[in-house]
Design brief:
four-stranded antiparallel beta sheet, two-stranded antiparallel sheet, 2 domains, 4 helices, alpha+beta, about 220 residues
């Protein structure tokens, strides 16, 4: 007995390849979207006070055109403002950690809780503080208020809420200087979320997603017959 294939073998092979390309593309697209969602959730937990920073992470699967499939489909997760293969510096630092050191200035000015914030909930810079309060910050060397040097406002009391009050130049008893910024040589940022773990986890799910896409396709093809 001899077994022979029924139909055009070339056409059958091409159809199998198209079906496989469809399954792979759908799976990679789903994995990319899942990785973006999980990474945004991790960033949201790391930065609960910010609603926008999580949206800096986005992703893209190729091919992205409708009804375009490829066995070599690939997905990328990246930060808005960066290229497809890179992340913006702030996100990269928060993901992998970084050491921050001044390039031209001699120290970093770290704001204290006394420093007001702007409309975007960011602490004012030393120059902005001087503009806000209409006076120069005074430099105090290390050892007087702590181990680090600092920038202070003088002749200003603290309110009951802990905020800097109005200046009192002729008060009988001058209030203590208010520490506005600590001056440090460098700062180390610890990683606050792990994009590698997220991407590795979703990459490991691709085979299962391919199998799901295959079953869904075969179900649709079976019902169409």
């Amino acid at each position: 007995m001899r077994m022979e294939a029924v139909g055009d073998l070339g056409q059958i092979a091409r159809q199998i390849q198209r079906d496989m390309a469809q399954d792979v593309t759908i799976a990679v697209t789903a994995a990319t979207r899942g990785a973006v969602t999980d990474m945004r959730q991790e960033i949201g937990r790391a930065f609960p006070a910010s609603r926008r920073i999580a949206t800096l992470v986005t992703g893209k699967a190729e091919p992205s055109q409708p009804n375009r499939f490829d066995l070599n489909a690939a997905g990328r997760v990246y930060g808005r403002g960066g290229k497809l293969s890179t992340w913006p510096a702030p996100l990269w630092a928060q993901a992998f950690g970084a050491r921050i050191a001044p390039s031209r200035r001699q120290a970093l000015a770290v704001p204290t809780q006394r420093v007001p914030r702007d409309g975007r909930n960011r602490a004012l810079t030393p120059a902005e503080v001087e503009t806000r309060f209409g006076q120069k910050l005074e430099f105090v060397p290390a050892g007087r208020f702590g181990k680090a040097a600092c920038l202070v406002l003088t002749d200003r009391p603290l309110t009951r809420a802990g905020r800097v009050g109005r200046r009192r130049e002729h008060a009988r008893r001058k209030p203590n200087p208010v520490v506005m910024f600590w001056l440090i040589r460098s700062a180390t940022l610890r990683p606050r979320f792990d994009p590698v773990e997220v991407m590795t986890r979703w990459a490991g799910m691709v085979p299962d997603l391919i199998d799901r896409a295959k079953r869904a396709r075969e179900s649709v093809q079976g019902s169409a017959r």
